Amino acid sequence: MLPSLGVPSGRRAAVVGALTFAGLAIAATASAHVTVSPTSLPQGSTAELTFKVPNEESSANTVSLQLQIPTDHPIAQVLAKPVPGWTIAVHTVKLAKPLTTDDGTFTTAVNEIDWTGGSIQPGQYQDFQVSVDPLPSDTTQLAFKAVQTYSNGDVVRWIDLSTSSNPNPDHPAPVLTLTPDSSGSATATATASAAPAAASTSASSSSSGNGLGIAGLVLGAIGAACGIAALLFVRKTRRSDTP
Fold first, then answer.
1. What gap in Å lies between CA 64 and CA 146, rounded to an integer?
2. Closest to 96 in 3D by CA, of 108, 85, 105, 87
3. Helical spans, DSSP H, in the chain
4. Which residues contact 124 (CB under 8 A, 6 or more apart)?
5. pTM tops 0.85
6. CA–CA dist 204, 191 (Å, integer)
7. Residue 211: its pLDDT value, please?
8. For the segment 23-60, what is each residue's pLDDT rounded down to a tens digit?
9. Among candidates 131, 133, 104, which has minimal Cα distance to 45?
10. Which residue in 61, 68, 174, 196 is deepest, having the highest Cβ count within 10 Å?
């Protein structure tokens, strides 16, 4: 703190502002990931998944999204909700082993959904919604890898998975956690099962992305607090030194 005694008050104020802005900028960048909501649902349930896609560019629009639907644990029925201004293409793959549910036996499954023709401008985001029925009962998580393309040709691949050595990758894939169905019934709906999870994630769209966002906010707050504390200390010191 002592070196700041000789720093003009205007410069000290500028430093405080810069620290605050830097911290908030870190938070905004860290939380701007493609995420899925809710983040957790019971195995075997039926639900509507919402994929939030933010535009991270300052001078280009997002013009397409490719969303991969995992087929190592296939979902029998996947439906994409129309989005005004966007064209939807649904791709399927033949399953090596037919999937049997209460609605029958399925030999194919959706493995990718593409949204094109629309535009997400800088500073905006778009929700893309998908109905799934039923969610797998033989796994504890599903990773929905996504590829985001911008009008300037930039491509961002949200495909990285958290590991013990890298728990917060730069471009994490949206991950849905599947929990055991404690009720013994696989009849959860988008409103019945997704709403509680969505409420619990209203302040955090994904565990990895928002962990970084919170860290950024904390850093910004600490920086601002340190700057303000320094300013107050200098003023108090000068008052005490004044005859």
1. 10
2. 108
3. 9-31, 194-200, 207-241
4. 54, 55
5. no
6. 19
7. 47
8. 444 444 445 899 999 999 999 999 999 999 999 999 99
9. 133
10. 174
**Total residues found in the chain within this entry:** 243
Per-residue pLDDT for 241 more than 90?
A: no
Write down the mean pLDDT value for the chain.
78
* Pairing of the two strands 47-54 and 62-68: unpaired
Burial class from Cβ neighbours inside 10 Å (0-12, 13-18, 19+) for residue 89 reads exposed
With 0-12 / 13-18 / 19 or more C-beta atoms within 10 angstroms meaning exposed / middle / buried, residue 54 is buried
Helices (H) and strands (E) in the chain, counts: 3, 12
Query: Would you place residue 182 in the very low, low, confident or very high pLDDT band (cuts 50, 70, 90)?
Result: confident
Tokens of 160: 């990285």
For residue 134, give the nearest of 161, 108, 103 by alpha carbon. Answer: 103
Q: How many CB atoms lie within 10 A of CB 126?
A: 19
CB atoms within 10 A of CB 209: 22
Q: In the predicted model, is pLDDT for residue 196 greater than 80?
A: no
Q: Which of 54, 150, 71, 72 is nearest to 113 (CA)?
A: 71
- Nearest C-alpha neighbor of 161 from the set 148, 151, 170: 170
Give residue-wise pLDDT tens across range 127-181. 999 999 999 999 999 999 999 999 999 999 999 999 999 999 999 999 999 999 8
Q: Do residues 41 and 204 lie in contact, with contact meaning Cβ atoms separated by under 8 Å?
A: no
Q: Of 109, 114, 36, 40, give the one whose Cα is nearest residue 75.
A: 109
Give Cα separations from 162 to 6, 57, 68, 170 (angstroms).
Answer: 47, 24, 17, 10
Among candidate residues 109, 161, 159, 115, the one with its CA nearest the CA of residue 134: 109
